[in-house]
Amino acid sequence: MTGLFSEVFLSALLFGAVTAAIPLLLAGLGEQMSEKAGVLNIGIEGMMLAGAYLGFVGAFYSGSLWLGFLTGAAGGVAVAMIMALLCVRIGLNQIVIGIALTLGLEGLTALLHHFQFSRSYPRLPAAEATVIPLLSDIPVIGPAFFKHHLIVYLAVALVFAMGYLYRRTQLGLNLQAAGDKPAALDVAGIDVIRTRTIAVLTTGALAGLGGAYLANVGAGLFIPFITNGAGFLGIVLAMLARGRPVWVLFGALLFGVCLSLTTAMQVAGINIPTDVIQMLPFLAVMIMLVLFGRRASLPAALGIPYERGAR
Amino acid sequence: MSIDTAPTASATALDATSGTATRRDILHRLLMTLGPILIALIIAGFILLAVGVDPLAYYGFVLEKGLFSPLGIQQTLTRMAPLLFLAAGLIVAFRAGMWNLGGDGQFLLGAVTAAASAPVLVQIMPSWLALTFSFLIAMAVAMIWSLIPALLRAYQGVNEIITTLMMTFLGTSLANVLVKLMFRDPSTTVPQTRTLPVEDRLPRLFETTITSGLLLGLAAIIIVHLVMTRTAFGLKLRIVGANPRAAVHAGLGVSGLTVTVFAISAGLAGLAGAVDIIGVQGNVRADWNPAYGLAVIPAVFLARMNGFAAIGFVFLLSVLSIGGESAARRLGVPNHFTLVLVSIVLIVLALAEYVDHRYNQSRKA
How many domains would you assign to chain B? Predict the structure, then answer.
């Protein structure tokens, strides 16, 4: 009996870990692209919130989860457009604008939620899962990893697509150059502003999608401040991954397990403040950094707006 | 303006023109600050209209409560105390080129240690000594908390944005754990620390409700400003900030300076927490996190890391947050609108600075 219980428990724990990891993965992958191109995108938390809110609104009124993902991504892109305009094109300080956008979206989405949903707190029906045949029959692992909404598999596939993009395509090289030596890219005849704009808008789309997943699949509803620092976690993941998408995936899963553990412990009635468990992933990463911390390989021009002809 | 004054280049004329120039300069600065704020208020007003709230009534309440009513302005000035300490800490770090984004964690740990130590200490020693000790303990704890990011950055080159962000997540959780498990007041059902009696808190100024923490905060930020701009030590830090490699070649001990900068910056953030607790709150409730740091960071940037300008921006933030809280209560708008307002103000101010800069450049060219 206990064996059966722990098996069910374990697969539920891992299932929750994947669900918690996906928004972090998408945010981390998005942030990674911005950082590669030399833009420190601190506004990603705001982009996720815009995605979560608009994603929920889209899914709620249309009844289609996919339309929700689309509106969520669009919401992220809309915020990213402001960021691209102000920080890439005009070259305003990325930290000022990033934090301002995060604050603004926190307020705006909470405000809209108050006037729209605060009386009814509507929920979406549970997302229907795409069950992968055969693989989903494996005990523990099957129900944990192979019974998710289709977008989960797409997000994981995106990790490898990103790896290919960075290593094998012209755009990938351009992105890297925009972050490492933008002047060289400019001399080679490629528009730095445009390359960076592409990166920031992609970040917005991915962050928005991550937010929409968080609200629509993870929670089934939108509440103010629902992202609760997920965007900042994305920044941490992107920086730890040193430009490699696969490491974002591993990092996201590590954080996902810890987040899922928090809920599982509460359900199991174990009497430890959730704060203790919430500290675990950060402790793990800090210990890793202390033990193996080497010079970070961040792009040379990270955070510096590009201005043609400037020294 | 230089063309007008060029022919009469006597010493007195020069003095006179420099006098008008600075006055014009101040006027210009004032215009470049108040103008954008007005524009931001108008933009935010449209959002208010969209959700069906009268913007004029809202702003009326903000101004009345945040600025013009005696009680309101006193609350505003009280709110400034922790923000000034935080801003001072950020000025040191940013001028030295170090992104201490861990202010909120350092703030909370400082707050919790102050809340844990002050009520105990006041029972065994005179209140002024107890408060001094609490301040020092809060500062020390925040400094120790910053040691890991500082050492990693100084000796391993690990980027401090990641480490301070992670330490702030850790610090927030740790502060909660400390409140719930270690320093919990056994006599209350809500998890919170022991409350410091009002008579033992920082004295209020004269006959008002303004905390004397305001004076401490003002002193902190002015001292920081003077140290950074007028002393050899400040110059060293600014060299490290401008070009760390050049600093190494100039023979500066960059690693040691890095650790020092983190310690000062975090220490001031810890003091910010302490001044909020010992001066105003009296205790820390579980899950309390005002997240002041996030709003102060952009304000410090807009002030161009100038201490006096930062005082102005901190005042503005306080007016908006105190006034916004009250306006929100009276008009039935959630307080979250203040965040939107602050955000728009920050963006428009940043834009205005850019436009001004470009205008000056094109005039020179």
Answer: 1
